[in-house]
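EI: anyone free to look at a 97-residue chain?
SC: sure, send it
EI:
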Amino acid sequence: MPSLLVEIVRYTDECFAGWAECRLIDAGGRDWRFLKPRALLRTASLDDRLPAIGHIACEVLERLDGTVLVSTELPRGVRSLDGESRFRIPLSALRED
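SC: here you go
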């Protein structure tokens, strides 16, 4: 399943299991933020050092000139803090397993 690479910038323990604030810079340079439960956030390492790289599952909608249009609506209904679920990202921000 494809995923977009995000930077985990901070953890918060305001509720059980905690949350992670994640940052995505899209192909146009816009900064998008997400809050995800830590338990559902896939990371490259097992420690809590920040910043860290995380992954948000996504669906590839379109490929165009070194960029990719993705949606985070499927499979888990993830939206940015601004309510957006579609992002044009550089190809380097996409991980395809």
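EI: The mean pLDDT is 87.
SC: 👍
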